[in-house]
Amino acid sequence: MKFNPRARLSTSQVRRHASARRGGTSGLGGGLGGGFGRPGGMRGGGMGGLAVPGGIGGLLVVGAIFLALQFAGGGGGGAGAFDHSQVADTDLSRCQTGADAAEFQDCRIVATVNSVQAYWEEALPEQADVDYSLSTTNLFTGSVDTGCGSATSQVGPFYCPSDDSVYLDTTFFDEMLEDELGAQGGDFAESYVIAHEYGHHIQDLLGTMGRVRSEQGAISDAVRLELQADCFAGMWDKFATTIEDENGEVYILELTEADISEAIDAAESVGDDRIQEQAQGRSDPETWTHGSAADRKQWFLTGMDVGTLASCDTFSASEL
Ligand SMILES: [Zn+2]
């Protein structure tokens, strides 16, 4: 993944929150339940909370990157989520150009967010006759208060429809994606996760979230929603090296086969079957919310191969 050093970054699309210490470990379920778990509590409606084994608060965030289960190996415990108590540097002003993106993780996130949103600013009106509106990515460590309630790192990256924002704990990539889920990681794995979350923002703008009636199971609406977000991430990938900043400079000069492999590997790593087998030794398709590793890979590749909203119609697909 090679960033264009001449590309200008816009830090206004990303906000970093100072690390907040919370008094207890019960904020997650209670808070997010208010946003997601009650009928009508969320724009689009109809997205009930799901009971999640392992006690991460009893609710699963719709719009997350993966099925959050508590991992036996630690890292998933409530207490662990509060270990990152260092005060984050909230200033992103060092992220000025693509050269900064090549050097610093936070600037890489800024550049990716800029590129993903520049893509949808064109693609969404063109293909769906819907105007795109910017969505802020909020970086945090430990916990954060959102329009969907308070959340900790355990939830993983997620999109909150109530405040149209993406939330991302930057420790997710090392601690969860690589260490817990066994993904190879890498810069473009991170980009896949970000593009997936923006896929949920697109669904929010298109009203797709309101189509979810069945919330778990291998061919449930919830899984279709997640696989579509993977497909949308693939759409951005397809055009990633052509997307330009305001001055006509592309953000990303080059993507290699190895970069694409990182994204595919990340998509597979957050497959429900992988996560369940790893966390509890067996997989139960009836409780899937995000789709299998194979399905996630396939829909990501469909988006990348065809590159249209129409090709990502997981809701009409007879087979996933
Ligand atoms: Zn998701």
Structural class per helix/strand content?
alpha/beta
Q: How many domains would you count in the coordinates?
A: 1
Tally of contiguous helical segments: 9
Strand order within the widest sheet? 2-3-7-6
Radius of gyration: 18 Å
Order of helices and strands: EEHHHEEEEEHHHEHHH
Q: Ligands in the structure?
A: zinc ion
β content, as a range? 5-15%
Sheet with the most strands, sense and barrel status? 4 strands, mixed
Helix content: 25-40%
Give the beta-strand count.
Answer: 8
For the termini, the CA-CA separation is 30 Å
So what's the overall shape? globular
Spans where pLDDT lies below 50 across 5 or more residues: 22-60, 72-88
Mean pLDDT: 83
List the helices and strands and how they pair.
Elements lengths: L1 E2 L10 E3 L10 H11 L60 H6 L1 H24 L8 E4 L2 E4 L2 E4 L5 E3 L4 E5 L2 H9 L6 H20 L14 H19 L12 E3 L2 H13 L2 H9 L12 H14 L14
Parallel strand pairs: 2-3, 3-7
Antiparallel strand pairs: 1-8, 4-5, 6-7
Helix pairs in contact: 3-5, 5-6, 5-7, 6-9, 7-9
The chain binds zinc ion.
